[in-house]
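Check out a protein:
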Amino acid sequence: MKFEKEARQLYNIVHSIASRNQRTLTARDENDHPAVLSTITDMSKVAEAVCIGVMDIPVDKIVGVAAPGAENHLYTPDFMPLASEASDFAAKWRSLYRDYFTDEGIRNPISCYEYLGRFYIIDGQKRVSVLKSCGEAVISAQVVRLMPVESQDKEIQSYFQFLKHFCLTGLYQLSFNNPENFEKLQEALGYESDYVWKDTDRYSFLFNWNVFECIYKKVFTEEKHMTAADIFVSLLDEYSYSEITKMHAWELENALRAVWKKRYGSVVVNLEDVFPKIS
């Protein structure tokens, strides 16, 4: 069967990683399965449910499932598979992997709730697991947004600020702790502050954003006060957007290190240790 060997090899790899991660989480007395929205969220704090429609969402913002289910124990929190290679689950997982390489690919969107910028799967756990294992950054999803009740809570206030930006960009990838940074980004891209992004604007930006975010995640592993978008705007204070898009990965790495050191006096980690120079 075409791609069966590759499917088995990948499943064995990610299953091994999942098993090791589960042992680590268990030793720390931490949850070793995906979070369940219905058990961690007080639904009385949800004002309404709004159907957003089908869109591409960032895979790394999928953090759990909507409700308890029979398959939940088959995944680690990041949806890596725990079932044995000989299980029916593994066979279905490998079948989806083979579909990934067909002309059609995995196109059937998952369904999920979005709450405070994070996603909880209603249907499609295996699709998420396969696509994450293949390194995909986004997945097609039917999204229902759970709107929180307005309050003075800092997280709720930040979320409503994010929604103002989302209405213009349509991107979940961009969130700012400093609201002024969104206007700076719009200006750097040559847009008016209230400009609504077209599909071509999003695709072009994400092509460059994915390179930057890869570096950001390797470098700022412990950063909690500034988002990737905030730090990206810090770069834009020193370089034009055009200059950033033309940088090789190692040049972008060094630029990021220099900007951070100039502003804050030190870097979080040694970038040369965590991101190899590539041309």
